Amino acid sequence: RLRKLRHGLSLDGKALLPAQVEWVKENQLRFILQEGKKRQIRRMCELVGLQATGLLRTRIGPILLGTLKPNQWRHLSRKEVFALLKNEEEKSNAYQDRKPSGVRKAYRRR
Asked: pTM for the complete prediction?
């Protein structure tokens, strides 16, 4: 099941990016996703015969949520804003590095 959760699933006809998944307790999994599709964790669990009974988000990108309660918010520090921007830039660069060079040429207008 873990192997499939990590690498082998697709939702809505599209393959998911690899996820980090590990057992924390007998009845608890920890997920680290590279993308966040609608109800992704619940749907991934259903596909491998597991039922998600509760979810707890602990961070968004490099930002740890700490003790924030549901529907509670806080302002980001300047350092956190820069960390988010850097994280997005790195993800964008990684995507460009993975994209085959032929893809760019296929869309050039002649």
From this structure: 0.69
Assess whether pLDDT exceeds 90 at residue 43. yes
d(CA 32, CA 17): 11
- In order of 32, 62, 93, 101, the CA distances from 97 in angstroms are 22, 21, 6, 9
Q: For the segment 12-37, what is each residue's pLDDT rounded down to a tens digit? A: 888 888 899 999 998 899 999 888 88
Q: How far apart are CA 91 and CA 75, in angstroms?
A: 24
Q: What are phi and psi of 63, to 5 degrees?
A: -95, 115
pLDDT higher than threshold 90 for residue 2: no
Question: Residue 12 contacts by C-beta under 8 Å, 6 or more apart in sequence?
Answer: 37
Alpha carbon separation from 90 to 23, 61, 67, 83, 96 (Å, rounded): 28, 12, 27, 10, 10
Q: Are 95 and 72 in contact (CB under 8 A)?
A: no
Distance CA 87, CA 100 (A): 22
